[in-house]
Amino acid sequence: xxxxxxxxxxxxxxxxxxxxxxxxxxxxxxxxxxxxxxxxxxxxxxxxxxxxxxxxxxxxxxxxxxxxxxxxxxxxxxxxxxxxxxxxxxxxxxxxxxxxxxxxxxxxxxxxxxxxxxxxxxxxxxxxxxxxxxxxxxxxxxxxxxxxxxxxxxxx
Length: 156
Description:
Layout: H1 19-42, E1 55-66, E2 70-75, E3 80-84, H2 89-103, E4 112-117, E5 122-125, E6 132-134, H3 140-147
Antiparallel strand pairs: 1-2, 1-4, 2-3, 4-5, 5-6
């Protein structure tokens, strides 16, 4: 059995979190709420969103997840492009698509679109649900897992 010592703040009548710290935390929450409200009311554009850029290459893919780690990529004609026993990032994207399609009650075996934009960014877009992921923000290795499925810029 654990006993509180008389020196502990709870036993000595003190607060575990000092009142000035609680007030500061409340002030931060209220300031954040005020800033977000102001941005929404005034129509400030989202600054962290990448600028739209024309699509220069695209490919329709079917991503089939097989459990927590396996994933298989198919061309829309059913040709297996790649089977990854441990798909890593590709599995994460596939799971995200599966989840979104479950929520929207859409079949999971429909194709998604992998795109390369003029500015060099890669995206996976699910035309069935409107879900998309900007692959570039996840780092070069994760982006490369999908980039190899599109022809190189200016070549095949």
